[in-house]
Write a structure and sequence with these properties.
427 residues, Rossmann fold, 14 strands, eight-stranded mixed sheet, 2 domains
């Protein structure tokens, strides 16, 4: 079980998005356990090369390497500078050097960002590490993720080229697997196109410090309803951008009020935290909801600190009796903890992941329903939480094992490539 050299892209640990962090931590946890002696360079949007000082990884050497689309092309972190270094064969560039020496480049695209839904610039950034691996002939592994939608000819052509050039490609749900097969085309080696599950199902929860545990354990006078309110959907621009059916903040405010009216204690869980609370920060969305609620309702609400990491947030979510969220990885934190959950979704990706656990009926589409109708659908999910729990108890352990098993299979493939097994593109 010798060590291997890997690069991990599309799962930045420290950018404030706990869902993306959950992806990265889940991959690192398995590598540390299953591939002792390995070296993993995790790409993020920081500066320079930084060793991991968390103490979490005792058997693998983990470091973080800054990469980014940047107008400061002269910086070593710039993908333009990395591209030049690769073409000139100059290995002084940190990222270029690590890619050149890697036994494989693992890429997860933030779980759901391999699409042109978020614009051309985002797709360029997501494609950059994939293209960098292929440029120097390193095996590219597309970890379990969503593929598409691709609504522009350029976006689809780019996706087809990258998928067909990869060594392995996993989808994280059945719908994405069908789209992966379409992108790969009929000439593909279908043994290397695999249906998987979101790697975050394998994330190990960690008990938080700083009094958070005691705060949650004191919530004994009623069921705990966890609620994630997404900052991505909080302003009017989201209505046009994602085709929302109505005002998201008003709907979530009414939902929290309705849950409190049932006798529940509400635990608000931010899953994306932007410094200062602006932009897409869930903290700003939570504050917008709290500002609309009367004092009597607010007294039954507890807000989880935004500074907790993904594993700590998963522990908090695991204490709930039911959970609802619009950040998909917040709901994965619930499902993987066998907590009955509901997704208030703005894209098709959520239903695909919920169906992995047999929970497709517990997804409410924010593009078709809002206001009182959405609140009714979500509170109906809350009402049958006790009926849902046995289903999760039966199905989720298998999904968690699959999340770990697919990573173990990937590591076995990488070791085989390293030992000389012939390898080509998927198509």
């Amino acid at each position: 079980m010798g060590g291997i050299q890997l690069c991990l892209a599309g799962a930045s640990i420290g950018n404030g998005n706990r869902g993306v962090e959950a992806l990265g931590r889940s991959v690192l946890d398995v590598i540390d356990t299953e591939a002792p002696g390995s070296r993993l360079s995790a790409f993020d949007d920081g500066w320079g090369v930084r060793p991991d000082n968390s103490g979490r990884y005792r058997r693998a050497d983990v470091e973080f390497v800054g990469v980014r689309l940047s107008r400061r092309w002269h910086r070593s972190e710039s993908w333009a500078q990395i591209r030049v270094a690769q073409r000139l064969g100059v290995l002084g560039n940190p990222a270029a050097t690590r890619i050149a020496h890697a036994d494989a480049v693992l890429d997860i695209s933030g779980g759901d960002s391999f699409t042109d839904l978020y614009g051309r610039s985002r797709l360029r950034a997501v494609s950059a590490p994939k293209e960098a691996a292929l440029r120097v002939g390193r095996p590219l592994v597309l970890l379990p993720q969503t593929y598409g939608p691709f609504d522009t000819p350029d976006g689809r052509q780019r996706a087809e080229r990258l998928v067909r050039s990869a060594a392995l490609a996993y989808a994280r749900d059945a719908a994405s697997y069908e789209r992966l097969l379409e992108l790969a085309g009929s000439a593909a080696d279908f043994s290397r196109l695999r249906s998987g599950v979101d790697v975050a199902f394998a994330l190990e929860p960690r008990r938080p410090m700083n009094g958070v545990v005691e705060q949650i354990e004191e919530l004994t006078d009623g069921p705990i309803a966890g609620v994630n309110i997404s900052g991505l959907l909080r302003d009017d621009a989201a209505v046009g951008r994602f085709g929302l059916a109505g005002n998201y903040i008003s709907t979530m405010t009414d939902l929290v009020h309705a849950l409190v009216d049932t006798g529940a204690r509400v635990l608000l869980v931010p899953h994306v935290h932007v410094p200062g609370g602006g932009g897409e920060s869930d903290v700003a969305a939570i504050e917008a909801v709290l500002a609309r609620l009367p004092d009597g309702v607010s007294a039954r609400i507890t807000v989880v600190p935004a500074e907790l990491d993904a594993a700590e947030l998963k522990w908090c979510i695991g204490q709930c009796d039911w959970f609802v969220g619009s950040r998909m990885h917040a709901t994965i934190g619930a499902l993987s903890s066998r907590v009955p959950a509901c997704g208030y979704a703005y894209s098709d990706k959520t239903r695909g992941v919920f169906e992995t656990c047999g929970m497709g009926d517990h997804v409410v589409d924010a593009r078709t329903v809002s206001g009182a109708a959405a609140v009714e659908a979500m509170t109906a999910s809350f009402a049958i939480r006790a009926d849902v729990k046995p289903k999760l108890d039966a199905r989720v352990p298998k999904v968690v094992r699959q999340a770990r098993g697919q990573m173990i299979d990937i590591l076995a493939d990488v070791r085989a490539w390293k030992s000389g097994r012939a390898l080509g593109a998927i198509a």
